[in-house]
Amino acid sequence: MRYTIIRHPRVEADLLEITDYIASYAGLAVGKAKVDEIVAFINRLADYPKIGSLRSELSPGLRAIPAAGKATVCFKVDDERRLLVILCISYAGADWASRIKDRD
To answer: In the list 33, 65, 73, 84, which could disulfide-bond 52, CB 3.0-4.6 Å?
Structure first.
């Protein structure tokens, strides 16, 4: 059974920031295409919620996984409610560890 994916409210801002960053050097179409690739990856997590590196030293149950080349997706899994909560998405080495601190 698939997990339901929910996003922290700031994830949309993360995606817009990634789009803008890529658009600044490769154009808007490329930025949007990369974000679409990241979103498709996130949607596939519903079938495989336990992948990624467990990073409990940063937050209990936190997982981080590379996506779409240079992105990192940070999330938690709630097995009881069958939820996968996307906490943040960073790109090109951005400091995702700091971002998740206030999103937990």
So the answer is: 65
Query: Options 3.90.320.10, 3.30.2310.20, 3.40.50.2000, 3.40.570.10; which CATH number does 4-101 get?
Result: 3.30.2310.20
Contact 11, 89 (CB under 8 A): yes
Q: How far apart are CA 28 and CA 103, in angstroms?
A: 28
The pTM score is: 0.93
Please give the Cα distance from 30 to 7 (Å, whole number).
23
pLDDT for 88-99, tens place per residue?
Answer: 999 999 999 999
